[in-house]
Structure formats: structure tokens, C-alpha cells
Known about the structure:
alpha/beta; 14 helices; globular; 4-stranded parallel β-sheet
Amino acid sequence: MGYYPGCSLHGLAKEFDHSARAVLKTLDLQPVAPQGWICCGSSPAHRVDHRQSIQMPLESLVLYEQEGLKEVTLPCAMCFNRFRAAARELRLDPELKQDLDQELGFEYQDSVAISSLLDFVVDRVGLESISDKVQKPLKGLKVVCYYGCLLTRPPEVTGSVEPEYPMTMDRLMKTLGATVIDWDRKVACCGASLSLTKTELVFEMSGNILENAQARGADAVVVACPMCHINLDGRQTQMDIQHIPVLYFTQLMALAFGMPDDAALKYNMIDPRPLLKERGLL
């Protein structure tokens, strides 16, 4: 299976990459990331240069196609959204596609399915197969599932059938044995890259998300996006709120699979280990 780690998983989100690869291995899947992949462009590219924002994901998609891979899965919600947006734009604009094909010296066939890692493990691997791997159910752990903006919206790009109140991560967490709590902010924006330019606004937006999670009785917030994790976990120490752990869904999968070391919990800014020990999960 194709695997696109993106830039964040090589730095601030290394716990996402480590736990994702460990989980995929346990599920008997071998992630393949061809040499030469480049940044997807993230949010800056499409704001500055439309053509460049299409070309950057395309250059990586071409590598997966040349490898003969039929699907590429992306852990990062932002990378997933940019890949899907680029593929859709190429279908809608044949002239742009022809121009980029000529520039890259390869005729892109649009033969590689693009999926988020969350959708891949739930829809392709399946909850039954995941359940078979659970050795230490997350019993007693109350979580809220945070999807943010880019994992499900806009649906014409992401293909989501439940963009405003998604449930994929909720179903996964229930399969792992956690108690999933309904809440109000599962698709609210965390502030994203405004963290660098309008930090106080991000404190407010992310703080509202975290406070709602705690008001609903959650022990932890589960995420699938490095940018969201940076704001909700990394910025949390700068907010005047009670701290709450924020974990990638793959970290909790690794924990439930009986692989606590592969959950890479030491990298989280708000240390989840005291909570997990208290719940008897470590």
C-alpha cells in the first residue's frame, strides 16, 4: 500500500508516523513511500499559487503511480485534503492537466485512489479485523473524537458522506474499547496555521474545543491531523485551562494492540501517561 508521510510526520508529529507504521505492520500491511516525494503544499500553496498547489501533490502522485500502487493513504488530514483537491482539479481542468503532464514528462492516469489513514483502516482493513488485534481494550477511557476542518470537508473534495458530524473515528475508538462521548466541537476549526500569525485567536479557538471536551466529561481528545495536534496539544500549556491529553488515533490503536512503546507517548506535550496508568492501560 502507498503511504505518504508528509513533512509533519518527520518532525513535530513523529509519534503519529511511528505509531501509524507500527499499527499497519500489526495489521499485516507494508507502507510504501517512494523516494522523492515532496511537500503537498499545505495551506500556504493554494493561497499563493493555484497552479503550484496542484503541481506539488501531483509530483508525488506520479511517483506512486509509477510504482504501480493502486492506493495511497495519508495520515495527515491536510495532506489528504490537498491530494484530493489536486486530483479533483485535474479532472475538472483538462488543459491544466495536459500542461502539467508535459512539464513533468509523464501522463498522469489518475489510477491511484487517495484515502486518509483513518478511512483506510476503518473502511479497507475493517473494524472486525481491528477488533481481532485488540489485546488491551481501552476500558474506562472516555474520549471525544476531533476531526477538524480538512478530514471531511468540503465533501466534494474529501468524498465524506457525513461531513458535518462524522463518526468514523468514533466507531474505531468504540472498537478499541474506549467510551466515546458526543460533543459539540468535533468539526470546529482549531485555528490551523493562524497559530503563527494570530496566536491569540488560536488560543481562543483551540481553548474552546478543549474546554468543551472537558465539559462533556472526556479524559482525552483523539485527533487525526498534525496541525490540529500542534494547536490542541502543543499550545495547551500557553492556555489558561485545565490540561487534557490529546492523542493521535494511531497511538490509541497501538496501545490497544498491546504495543505501548510503539504508541510513542513520550512525544506528547501534555503527557497522557499518568492518565493511562490511572486507568490501568499502562
